[in-house]
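not sure who needs this but someone in the group chat was asking about MTH1187 family thiamine-binding protein from Fredinandcohnia quinoae so here u go. i didnt clean anything up, its just raw.
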Amino acid sequence: MAIVDITVIPVGTATPSVSDYVAEIHTFLKAYNGDIKFQLTPMSTLIEGDIKELLEVVREIHELPFQKGIQRVCTNIRIDDRRDKENTMERKLQAVQDKL
């Protein structure tokens, strides 16, 4: 299981706010009905699941602002793909909490 941290930055919007675009991304992610997990953070979105599926989801998320007429989109991704043991968002957080 992999975790992807994704930030989609539409360039050339009418306002500095991008919350409408973020909301659209989360509406899109809800359609996966539990096949992938996702979590909104103040600066990005985390998605968790099979790496092949996540990479396809990243491509689709990147395309969403273009479908709204945006002509330029910058997308940043970080991938944590750990294969020696189960890798989940909750497990990673719990590992730190256990040490605090």
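also The radius of gyration is 15 Å. if thats useful
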